[in-house]
Amino acid sequence: MQLFVSKLGRTRFAEAWDLQRKLVDLRRHGLIDDVLLLTEHEHVYTIGKGGDENHLLATDRELQADGVDVFRIDRGGDITYHGPGQVVGYPILNLEHYFTDIHRYLRCLEETIILTLDRFGIEGGREEGMTGVWVKGEKVAAIGVRVSRWITMHGFALNVNTDLTGFDRIIPCGIFHKGVSSMRKVLGKEVPLEEVQDSLTESFCSVFGCTVSPVQPEQLHERVRALRMESAER
After folding, report:
1. Hey, which end of the chain has fewer CB within 10 Å, N or C?
2. pTM across the whole model
3. What string of H, E and C letters represents the secondary structure of the chain?
């Protein structure tokens, strides 16, 4: 399968969420191939459809003062944090071309991250009964997805150089007894985001059996606009 990979740079969550929804619609109608978006978000908390707003510990006034957005969104899972220094991946896939099994899809996303960490000398793994990737008992990557008619959206967030104090204002993923970690925390040094994005892409393609076709964000946005206009005119 061909996989278009676009590195969006730093984005606000609302912008990336809107792009995802447009891509999902195009993928559902067979107008585009599979896409993997890689980005780094401005500070934001997102709460999944089954999430508990009480797991957000900061007040609205505190968040507004710091310019931090909060969104309740249509993925699974509880609350999580996105911010600078974190690589967020949004695969837009038609699972009918791979396997129609959501649990297997989640395990494949975990495996993608575990393979990536291994490339940097970090041993990542799973915790029984929990989704995500862990290092020494602390969560280094969160996963939350939505699958509709076997088209995927949302995805994973890997803490690379993330300021982990962003997690102090929440109970991450509703888990009270586990901490969070980052690649920088484990390795004791900054890790180039570009290298992590490239390793994630290689690992993703290894797990899913894809062939990468890089696409610039401007080209992707233009393609989306053109296809949506064509579709509206029919």
Report:
1. C
2. 0.95
3. CEEEEEEEEEECHHHHHHHHHHHHHHHHCCCCCEEEEEEEECCEEEECCCCCHHHECCCHHHHHHHCCEEEECCCCCCEEEECCCEEEEEEECEHHHCCCCHHHHHHHHHHHHHHHHHHCCCCCECCCCCCCEEECCEEEEEEEEEEECCEEEEEEEEECCCCHHHHHHECHHHCCCCCECCHHHHHCCCCCHHHHHHHHHHHHHHHHCCEEEECCHHHHHHHHHHHHHHHHHC
